[in-house]
Amino acid sequence: MTDHLHPEWANIRIYQGDFPDSQVAGQPPFKGVQANATGPTSTTIEFTTGTTRIWGIGLLPLGWARFVRQPANAHADRIYDVSSEQFLSPFRPLAASVFHGEPDEHAELARISKFFEQSVAADIEDDPRIAACHAALVNPDIASVSEMAEATHLPTHTVERLCRKHFGFPPRLLLRRQRFMRSLVQYMLDPSLKWIGAIDGHYHDQAQFVRDFHRFMRMSPSEYAHCPKPVLQEVMRARQEYIGAAVQALHAPARA
């Protein structure tokens, strides 16, 4: 089956069974591996898989800064094999240990939780400016970089630098991505709205939304509406039910 990931923060995905083939829009196909990692994305990732079990571990900007410690913009819109990239070597023990014997979700989750609890670096303090920028991004009332700077009490040039380093993209593109994702979530959770009823209030018109759709999903809204969504539709509904945010891009910073 084939589906399309939405633009999101960084992720590590670990598989048991068939390993998915993936492709970041505009890049060569990435053949299936037992564990892959993506940096923050501003475009869709198409993936095809057979029967598989997956643990997906999202790294919000605070999590990226603490656990990866790399400039996020250097890894934006990229997908990697955990087993072959040196900067991902700390995650190899996790990839090797999550699945053990018969499937047991509770035991697997416990192993993941233990890994991150033991990996929290005592010498790394969370930067409150990252949390402030993230909180501003997920605030639907904030629509411009100047408003973001005002909300974070930071100079605009500092917001620009922090966003590139820890979020992967300049703040203007991040705000545009958030606006798009709010609209997409509205439609995915309630298709009866149709696109016109799901468009975020910060869009000037439908044409602007269509341009964003092509930018972030590499297809038109109507093309996407007709695409099968065997994985993402159910994942979004489960996220919304259990944590109140249907997609990772809309998670509040407290969930890092």
Q: In terms of topology, how is this protein built?
A:
Elements: E1 2-5, E2 10-17, E3 21-24, E4 35-38, E5 45-48, E6 52-59, H1 61-68, E7 79-81, H2 92-97, H3 105-119, H4 128-137, H5 145-152, H6 156-167, H7 171-189, H8 194-198, H9 206-217, H10 221-226, H11 232-243
Antiparallel strand pairs: 1-5, 2-4, 2-6, 3-5, 4-7
Helix pairs in contact: 4-5
Descriptive notes:
This protein has 256 residues and is of the alpha+beta class. It folds into two domains: 2-119, no CATH class; 128-255, Orthogonal Bundle (Arc Repressor Mutant, subunit A). Helices cover 44% and strands 14% of the residues. It is built from eleven helices and seven strands. The strands form two sheets. Strands 6-2-4-7 form a four-stranded antiparallel sheet. Strands 1-5-3 form a three-stranded antiparallel sheet, with no helix packed on it. The mean pLDDT is 94.
β-strand amount: 5-15%
Amino- and carboxy-terminal Cα gap: 30 Å
Q: What's the CATH class of the largest domain, please? A: Mainly Alpha
Counting helices, strands and paired strands, the structural category is alpha+beta
Total separate domains: 2
Radius of gyration: 18 Å
Query: H/E series, N to C?
Result: EEEEEEHEHHHHHHHHHH
CATH topology of the largest domain: Arc Repressor Mutant, subunit A
Count every helix, treating DSSP H or I runs of 4 or more residues as helices.
11
Low-confidence stretches: none
- Mean pLDDT equals 94
The number of E-state strands comes to: 7
What is the overall shape? Answer: globular
Using the 3D structure, state the CATH architecture of the largest domain: Orthogonal Bundle
